[in-house]
Task: inverse folding
């Protein structure tokens, strides 16, 4: 079964609105959460890395004021795309890294992704 | 040079064929290596880790060549359900940071 959930799975919004995406680790505490973006036929690009209770570290070229990340607990991280524009339309995937008893090691798992379409 | 490079394909192979994917990485200090599978419009799913000694899981065999900075995935007896994009990924960590970097993926289509 899924170990990382992501909500919503699909969003269509008007240009200028803000969109919040939630990512939850379901049966483990995620020491680190990652947010990726994938454009069609492109590889996953890391946007930011966040540790619980601290500020996210953004990759070069990713605007921290536009993509707000909150990692308030060890099982929840949110990404808010503020004032979304059509060029922000993409597949956003979160990933959580932590120790799961089932694997008996630290592993990174991906959420099912959120498809964002900004009109 | 890109950090992780793969042949984008597509690879179109008949059912039952053996197919091999290659991947090169640029950071000689990379520590961990993986193959992920991504179906159309879905998230990547871990297929297998790649160990220095090579490892096998059923029809899938992964190998690592640190000297050449190269990893491979071999799929034997291809099934229709193997059709997907295969992504190699490497972990670079250090100085308190940790990053999983993906290649662009190689698309495989297994045809009846």
Result:
């Amino acid at each position: 079964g899924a170990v990382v959930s992501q909500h919503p799975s699909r969003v269509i919004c008007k240009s200028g609105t803000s969109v919040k995406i939630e990512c939850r680790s379901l049966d483990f505490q995620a020491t680190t959460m990652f947010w990726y973006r994938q454009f069609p036929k492109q590889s996953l690009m890391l946007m930011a890395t966040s540790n619980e209770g601290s500020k996210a570290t953004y990759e070069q070229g990713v605007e921290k004021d536009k993509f707000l990340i909150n990692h308030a607990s060890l099982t929840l991280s949110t990404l808010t795309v503020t004032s979304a524009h059509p060029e922000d339309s993409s597949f956003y995937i979160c990933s959580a890294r932590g120790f799961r008893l089932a694997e008996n090691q630290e592993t990174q798992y991906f959420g099912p992704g959120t498809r964002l379409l900004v009109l | 040079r890109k950090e992780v490079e793969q042949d984008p394909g597509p690879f179109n192979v008949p059912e039952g064929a053996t197919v091999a994917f290659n991947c090169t990485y640029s950071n000689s200090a990379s520590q961990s290596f993986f193959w992920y599978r991504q179906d159309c419009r879905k998230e990547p799913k871990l297929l297998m880790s790649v160990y220095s000694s090579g490892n096998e899981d059923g029809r899938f065999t992964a190998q690592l060549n640190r000297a050449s900075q190269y990893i491979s995935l071999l799929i034997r007896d291809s099934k229709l359900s193997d059709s997907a994009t295969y992504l190699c990924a490497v972990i670079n960590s250090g100085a308190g940071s940790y990053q999983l970097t993906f290649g662009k993926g190689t698309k495989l289509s297994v045809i009846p």
In short: DSSP finds no helices and eleven strands in chain A. The longest strand of chain A covers residues 90-100. The mean pLDDT of chain A is 89.
